[in-house]
Design a protein that fits this description.
Strand 9 and strand 10 form a beta hairpin. The protein is globular, with a radius of gyration of 16 Å. It has one helix at residues 11-14, and strands at residues 2-8, 18-21, 29-31, 36-38, 52-59, 67-74, 80-84, 90-95, 97-98, 101-102, 106-109, 115-118, 123-124, 128-129, 135-142, 149-160. The chain has one helix and 16 strands.
Length: 161
């Protein structure tokens, strides 16, 4: 089984796959009578011409490292953002597209205060919290056309710390 080593989630490393959602640096605006910093427009949300934005709540069971990766998926019709409703790190697995198939996967771990937005058509692993609770607000495309493709690897990977 091939191993994938987890690396910290940074915007630079994650940029080919999506956006890191975090309140870092100085706020873009100060609002609400000077009592709130707004970190403005942090994600490139994409719901396609036939879709609309939807907000769902996911409750995923926590997993541990090493973690077995045998499948990735992607959403050809729109982006998908995961906003943790906790301050626990979670695992983010992505893979570049290579001719319609996933290439070599990469694994990231959040710092507990980051969310992510996966761009349209990005191969990614399933939601993988590393601690309970596994509650996430998910902003993604709602529409009538299919928006899920799965790829099962012939040989699974082991994601390690």
């Amino acid at each position: 089984m091939q191993e994938i080593r987890v690396q910290p989630l940074t915007q630079e490393a994650f940029a080919p796959f999506g956006d890191v959602l975090a309140a870092t640096g100085a706020p873009d605006k100060i609002i609400n009578q000077g009592l709130c910093g707004r970190f403005h427009d942090r994600a490139q949300l994409d719901f396609g011409p036939e879709g609309r934005a939807g907000i769902s709540i996911f409750n995923a069971e926590p997993r541990a490292l090493p973690n077995r990766l045998d499948m990735v998926e992607r959403h050809p019709e729109g982006s998908q953002a995961f906003l943790p409703l906790h301050e626990h790190p979670f695992l983010v697995i992505v893979a570049p597209d290579e001719g319609g198939q996933p290439g070599q996967p990469l694994a990231f771990v959040t710092d507990g205060k980051q969310g992510i937005n996966l761009h349209r058509n990005t191969w990614h692993g399933v939601l993988t919290p590393l601690a309970a609770p596994g509650l996430f607000a998910v902003v993604d495309r709602i529409g009538q056309t299919p928006n899920l493709q799965e790829h099962w690897f012939d040989t699974p990977f082991s994601v390690i710390a």
